Amino acid sequence: MLEAGRVTYKQLILLIFISRLIVGLTYLPGITAPPANQDIWLVGIFHLPIELLLSIPIYLLWKRFPDQSIIQYSETLLGIGGKIIGVLYAWLFIQYSAITLTQLGFFMSTMILPDTPPLFIVASMVLVCAYGVLHGLKVLGRLSEIIAPIIIIAIITIFVLIAKDMDLKKLTPLLETGIFPIMQGGFIAAARSMEIIGLAMVFPCLNDQGKGKTVLIAGYTLPVIIFMLLEIVLISIFGGEAAKKATFPVFLMIRTISLEGFLERIESVHLAVWLLGIFIKVSFYYYLAVLSIGQLFDFKEYKPLILPVSAIIIPLCIIIAPNLAELRVFTGHKIFTWYVLFFSVVIPSLLLFTAILRKKGVPGK
């Protein structure tokens, strides 16, 4: 196996938690998805069970091939066809790294460093992340154990400081457009989960293979709870319509925090915490990209691939979204949801069907 590093189930839960949550702490893309009103926080009720259902093909494939990633068992099942699938997943991880970096670049150049080109910000972060990838999954897992509690403490602090400004009347009327838009929102939130695909790569690195279900349930539940609380607070402050129109609603909300003129500009603390989380997220998918390519070509080491892959990621950040408006269109629920669903459910379901039909991966066969 190319990856020698192992992670504990707690480290993997925290990696998934950070990866799922962190971009939402500025952009909160789900706020514009159905029902797109004051009922958006109710989406979490359906989000979790649907995300678990969508993870079933990946989970069952892992049980059949516990020592192989999706790159490896695709080739086991389909031969050269599996290689082509592996190329698609390697591309997806490169592209998703570039998307996250682009989100970082546009946020920083819009809200924090208006005179700094996004490309400079992106290239700087890629170099930092390359160092993290060089040390492998085990180190990223350990860093998650340090950074995740910092993120949670920061979120709790924000909730406490802003509670006095909340107006819960803005959450009414409940179910204004009925239950179906909320169910649709739950499906969209779950289907956008790149973490399902990430787990298909790192499940074999779990040092306790009996904890797979725990990773799925805990790794998905924590972000859903925080998103629900975040949306309640956000709508209670701005109202549904104003929150939906803001490009960086959570960041703007944090900027409003003022404690009797004594505690202000707390967004700088939020920014520091957010950058730590972005580092973990980009490093995680950057690592999956080089690991995928290494497994595709049977390399003994993935480390020689780190710099060449960075040379693809950096220019890709410019190509995929020349401006913030185009980035929002691509990562919006009308396109990105179905794009991710193809990789997280459609391809794994076809692989699972093939494995069952050909009786591959079943112990004793």
Average pLDDT, rounded to a whole number, is: 91
Bin the helical content.
Answer: over 70%
Q: Separation of termini?
A: 22 Å
Which of globular, elongated, flat, extended, rod-shaped describes the shape? globular
The overall strand count is 0
SSE series: HHHHHHHHHHHHHHHH
Main sheet overview: none
- Class from secondary-structure proportions: mainly alpha
What is the count of DSSP helices, taking H or I runs of 4+ residues?
Answer: 16
- Beta content comes to under 5%
Low-confidence stretches are: none
Task: Describe the protein.
The structure is a single chain. Helices cover 70% and strands 0% of the residues. α2 packs antiparallel against α10 and α7 packs antiparallel against α13. The protein starts with 8 loop residues before the first helix and ends in a 7-residue tail after the last helix. The chain has 365 residues and is an all-alpha fold. It contains 16 helices and no strands. The model has no long low-confidence stretch (mean pLDDT 91).
Summarize the structure.
The protein is built from 16 helices and no strands. The mean pLDDT is 91. With 365 residues, the chain is mainly α.
List keywords for this structure.
16 helices, 365 residues, globular, mainly alpha, 0% strand
Topology overview:
Blueprint: H1 9-21, H2 43-54, H3 56-64, H4 70-78, H5 80-112, H6 118-134, H7 136-162, H8 180-191, H9 195-202, H10 212-238, H11 240-245, H12 249-255, H13 267-296, H14 306-320, H15 324-331, H16 336-358
Helix pairs in contact: 1-7, 1-10, 1-13, 2-8, 2-10, 3-9, 3-16, 4-5, 4-16, 5-6, 5-13, 5-14, 6-13, 6-14, 7-13
